[in-house]
Specification:
The complex is a heterotrimer of chains A (469), B (175) and C (281). With 469 residues, chain A is mainly alpha-helical. Chain A contains 18 helices and no strands. Chain A has a single domain, classed as Formate dehydrogenase/DMSO reductase fold (Up-down Bundle), CATH 1.20.1630. Chain B is rod-shaped and about 80 Å long. The N and C termini of chain B lie close together (6 Å). Classes of the chains: A mainly alpha (469), B alpha+beta (175), C alpha+beta (281).
Amino acid sequence: MQTKDINENIAWAKINEDVLRSMENPRMGYWVALAACVAMIMCAVLAEIYQYQVGMGPSGLNWPHMWDLYIATFVFWIGMSHSGTLLSAILHIIQADWRKPIYRFAEAMTLFSLMTAGLFPIIHLGRVWNMYWVLPYVSDRGIWPNFRSPLVWDAFAITTYMTSSALFLFIGMIPDLAICRDNARGWRQKLYTVLSLGWQGDDRQWRHFRRIYLMMACFLIPLAVSVHSIVSADFAMSIMPGWHVTTFPPYFVAGALYSGCAAIITLFILLRYFFRFDEYMTIPIMEKTCKLTFAIAMVWTYLNLIEFAATWYGHDPVAKELLIQKFIGPHAPFFWTMLFCGSVLPFTLAFEKLRRHMPTMFVVSLFLNLGMWLERWMIVTPTLSFSHQPFAWDIMWPSMVQWAIVFGSFGWFGMLFLIFVKVFPSVSMYEVKEMVFHRRHYHSDELESKFHRRAGDRQSDADPSREGA
Amino acid sequence: MKRYYVMGLFSNFEEAFSTISEIRQHAIPGVTVDDVTLKSPIEHPEIEEILGDRGSPVPKFSLFGAIFGAIFGFLFLASAQANFLTQPQGGKAIITLPSNIVLSYEMLILFGVLSTVIGFMINARLMTKRHPLYSEKVSLDQVGVMLELDEKNVDSLKELFKKHKVLEIREEVSQ
Amino acid sequence: MSLKNILENWSHYRRAHEEGGHHEYEHMWGMAIDLNKCTGCNACSVACYAENNLPTVGKDRMRKGQGLHWLRMERYWDEPDLGGDDKEYQERGGSFLPMMCQHCNAATCEPVCPVAATYHTPDGLNAQVYNRCIGSRYCSNNCPYRLRYFNFYSYYEESWPEPLNMQLNPDLSVRDKGVMEKCTFCIQRIRTGKDAAQREGREVKDGDVVTACAQTCPTEAIVFGDLLDKDAQVTKLWKAQEVELGRAKQDKSDGELRGYRVLEGLNTDPCVMYMDRVREA
């Protein structure tokens, strides 16, 4: 059984070769997947054109359901974007080096899910053509956006997060882009020459590089927490039952990390399978990700229970009625599915046998994210259905227009990701080299075997070579 | 005056580091460790121990950017609110501190990040032409030690390189 | 410059909301609705449709909840104490609540609008600026009374076929798709009343401005007026019921007092007072 995060004897040249290979010659399946994604986007584009022409009516939104899937899916994508920061920034600061082979695609995921999420607040506007009014530009009429509105906070937070995580992804990729530049020909070489900014790996560059990477990580952690807290403020700052909840900011952050981790597992397995990254995205790293996901799932479950208990014992009749409606009302099937997917299913991650079985984990991770998507829906919609004014109680089912746009958003994300994996290295070459180098030089083999030995393991007697980088 | 650039490529860090150690101990008169540029495919934690602490002002850029962002952010928001006459009240003050704190915090991070990146670009001398002695092997798996020196020291440096099992020596003369 | 402006007027910008914001309130338009008198006839709602160019959206869209009814008659049939369970005389248990925008002084809809399309006027009104609205619909979500309505379609295209378009009120606009709207306390009538008073060189007096619903109500259940005017009928009613602006909880120990404001506990400080229906036990 494989117990080491990575085989420390991989030659550096092989790392370059393996990763660069993954970027070349897309196979037929790649083009089919890309075409499928574009087709999904077209569904959304058609729906959006229709909605743009006619108004918000066809989306099935009504009074009192002024928000529905659009906002729920917006929160879902924003949540998914938190995984990249978790892996690249938090694990970087606590020096967990097993993040190194898998953080690049997680960061790309962050950027792309933000790019997806950013579309939804725009799509859901009644007058899309005026969306720029939310930005604080100087107008000679002296009109500003309303800085008290959590939606404006969203605009600020998402802009900041998108800029910062794009820069973080880019900065972290510069040494790899230099590798690509040195190995590419044609248009790729031109692209990488521009993008690698003249990186030549000298000590001055590495020295500043280490600082900026640390500084960016320090900025990104509080930023990620604040972004999802601000998204939760869209709800927590209101006075509606089920939204006006004090625990929402941590609850949202936990949910965000949760769905992000689940998405990492999904993409981990896909990349490992399709790009044959078995040597880098190893089972032990998978296991660590699963354990992390399990821990976050339990935090999420705890915060859920806290919310129920606080509502129940708070004796606010409206909030209590809403809670009852969630459990037994028209939304109950979704609510229970969410609880099952979010709190029961993650227990599969606690078993080593299941954790090491890729197909199981693939299915589980998809269901975890289904649960997280339902969570967002169950936050947004029941409150609108059952709020203070009983006369305004209503039930609605989103129309095909909304479903098409939600469906298309997955295509948009998929398309961006597919383009990314073929244009940019989805495994960080220089950091895997660092990881291999460190393990070779600084890990004591006795300690290694002591910590990682399990029943049934054979003692590894191969002495890792210390020759030649 | 002519300047000579000589770069030796080594197969691993140990050899490169022992070369630099000898330069540090003045194996070649007139050549100091400050003339050394180390080129490596990864960031080695001991580079600074070998080359000496050369410092990095990047965190200062972060600090400056963050402070600027927070102050500018707050003043920008407050002055916008103060000049905005028909804004919603909702029973709230005109300059609202909670919202401005949230937004100033975002501005702090945004400007902090931008300033850090700019500081990095400037200090790491990015977006300049690569050195003519750049070798693609550095991005693969070899470690380069490059020195800038006078003509008289070139040969003794090459000797030193060869002593430490150098794989390849490249040189370049500039005016 | 603005920095100087901030420093000099800091306390104003931090405290002014206690007096009314950038401005002194010139008026504080308010209502008193006596539910004892309300028969639930819906005349007010019809008058509102006629006065404010509200489109009729048709049965299907109304059923889907995409209609606009600035003044809606809420009907509740669920008071078993009063005979709501009585199959034969179900209306004994019925109660009516005409709901229009409550023009809250601490309106929850105002601070959440991202583009400041809704704000408080010097008249104490909660105004909606259609031109500025981008349709994020956050205000409606944050209105505990659910009194804001959205133009889900360009309703005007079908609502007034020739020659019905001739009956549109020229004093206010017809709204297009993507815009939030709600009861304005007939702001066009307030404007007309103020203009008339100004032409005659006098203050606005009670009775100069009457909203369409108050004008139409056959039982005169709705009284509209300026709460800052000591002699106005509405002020007297508020006083008689000991309901005050700025107080979240009204004293209900005196059985004679029937005044309340809807969902007062949320501290939205609405300008519409309802007088509870008195029934025989």
